[in-house]
Design goal:
Number of helices: 3
Distance between the termini: 93 Å
Structural class: mainly alpha
Largest sheet: none
Bound molecules: zinc ion
Order of helices and strands: HHH
Helix content: 55-70%
Length: 135
């Protein structure tokens, strides 16, 4: 066997190995990319926490976690979820308040278009002339 045949054989081995291993490397890369999307999140921290809880339950059911670790992590995640839900509710309340102020300050909405009487928040019709309030 001459040195050329050995060299060609070695080159073929490297080439074939590269092609055979390529799909495995791509799959691993995709899995890493998916994990990144999950961990950095959709910008919605309560959804992220739910994913984390689901993964935690799965890990516990498959005996990857001890009872103590499971309880500690679960408590921490539930606290995070509660905080996320609370902050979202505060944000919703703030938006509602801004909308209410904006509606009240719209032209013709704070006063009757017919007679100029000032509307209260609950008024749907003018208390003075009965003209409908336009929202
Ligand atoms: Zn009126």
């Amino acid at each position: 066997m001459n040195i050329g045949a050995i060299f060609i054989g070695f080159a073929l081995l490297v080439l074939v190995t590269t092609f055979v291993l390529d799909p495995f490397r791509q799959r691993q890369h995709q899995m890493l990319a998916n994990a990144d999307v999950k961990s950095t999140g959709s910008g919605n921290s309560s959804i992220d926490t739910l994913y984390a809880l689901r993964d935690l339950d799965f890990d516990y059911q498959t005996d990857k976690l001890t009872e103590e670790d499971y309880q500690n992590i679960r408590t921490e995640l539930l606290t995070q979820a509660a905080v996320a839900i609370e902050s979202r509710q505060e944000e919703d309340a703030r938006i509602e308040e801004l909308l209410r102020i904006r509606r009240r300050n719209r032209p013709g909405n704070g006063n009757c278009l017919q007679c100029g009487q000032v509307f209260q928040d609950e008024n749907k019709f003018c208390p003075e002339c009965g003209h409908a309030r336009i929202f």
